[in-house]
């Protein structure tokens, strides 16, 4: 179907003829042989991981605070509801003005996009804890730190893992358009660069690589972050 749509059904002068499978495969081989694809993939993955790390370092503690404190929850709910509905890419002009050109704006946009699933997943996990567990811990004179480490953190682990997996998908989607804005490396930049040269075969080749990497990242997240089931007795 791909070959028919881009070869048989397209007009001879159409640029879509460049996106036929045979041309895309050659473009992909050329990107690999020149080392461009490996370099830009490594840069994109670096930005993704740093952005996710920042989102986790902010989202998990903040989610615990909001979930455990009713006062903090009442104060933070309007702000969270307001900020999380703003598109991360709308922060681009301010981000570039603050951080300049380079990886920092991209990492910031990834962190802004990924922090909300982590934060909300943590809050949901805290709210799902059976209050009886906390009552028992308090009756045994457990300190707040002991309650946190012995009751809260084990109980919210699954929700935090689900939030991180969801954040990974959102961050990967935001990464590509963020790399089209004032950077000279990364997979998003390669799409923009190939488009400017009217090299649509390379555009589709990089898109295919982005889809394949996204699938592999989600598969890795499922394997690493999936909740472990206890063996049946």
UniProtKB/TrEMBL annotation:
Belongs to the binding-protein-dependent transport system permease family. The keyword Transmembrane applies. The chain crosses the membrane at residues 45-67, 79-101, 107-129, 166-183, 203-225. Gene3D superfamilies: MetI-like (1.10.3720.10). This is ABC transporter permease. It is a multi-pass membrane protein. Residues 41-225 form the ABC transmembrane type-1 domain. SUPFAM superfamilies: MetI-like. The keyword NADP does not apply. It comes from the Bacteria. One of its GO terms (biological process) is cellular response to sulfur starvation. It is found in: Cell membrane. InterPro entries: MetI-like (IPR000515), MetI-like_sf (IPR035906). Signal peptide: none annotated. It holds the Pfam family BPD_transp_1. Keywords: Cell membrane, Membrane, Transmembrane, Transmembrane helix, Transport. One of its GO terms (cellular component) is plasma membrane.
């Amino acid at each position: 179907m791909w070959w028919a749509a881009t070869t048989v059904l397209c007009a001879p002068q159409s640029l879509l003829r460049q996106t036929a499978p045979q041309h895309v495969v050659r473009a992909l081989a050329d990107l690999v042989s020149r080392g461009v694809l490996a370099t830009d993939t490594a840069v994109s993955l670096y930005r993704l991981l740093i952005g996710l790390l920042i989102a986790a370092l902010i989202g998990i503690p903040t989610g615990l605070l909001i979930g455990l404190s009713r006062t903090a929850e009442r104060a933070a709910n309007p702000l969270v509801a307001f900020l999380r509905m703003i598109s991360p890419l709308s922060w681009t002009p301010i981000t570039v003005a603050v951080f300049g050109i380079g990886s920092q704006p991209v990492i910031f946009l990834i962190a802004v996009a990924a922090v909300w699933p982590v934060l909300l997943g943590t809050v949901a996990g805290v709210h799902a804890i059976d209050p009886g567990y906390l009552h028992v811990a308090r009756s045994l004179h457990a300190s707040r730190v002991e309650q946190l480490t012995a009751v809260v953190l084990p109980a919210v682990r699954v929700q935090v893992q689900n939030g991180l997996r969801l954040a990974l998908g959102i961050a990967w989607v935001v990464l590509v358009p963020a790399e089209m804005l004032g950077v000279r490396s990364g997979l998003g930049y390669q799409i923009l660069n190939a488009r400017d040269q009217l090299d649509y075969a390379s555009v589709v080749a990089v898109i295919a690589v982005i889809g394949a990497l996204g699938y592999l990242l989600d598969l890795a997240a499922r394997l690493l972050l999936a909740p472990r089931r206890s063996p049946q007795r």
